[in-house]
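Work through this:
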Amino acid sequence: MIGRPRTPAETKRLHTFIGVAAVLWLGAAIAAVIDGDPLMAVSWGSLAAFGGLSAGGAINRSKGMAYLAIGLLVVGVAISMGVFVID
């Protein structure tokens, strides 16, 4: 079923999954910096920031932080799509 997690165990698994994804996105951002690709570094960095806000639970406590996280996600995906379309 798609929707909000119903139990604390499901919420914990979701936060763990997003936390692992954020670490991988941060690694990709660092690799993009080393590779010399600034647009992809910004893209992966914004996805890592989204993951950090989500995994940390900041979006559960503040509506403004939730909007910031969604904005970071949209920016990261838009930059990635733009780079892949241009290349």
About this structure: The CA atoms of residues 59 and 66 lie 4 Å apart. The helical segments are 8-35, 38-56, 58-61, 63-86.
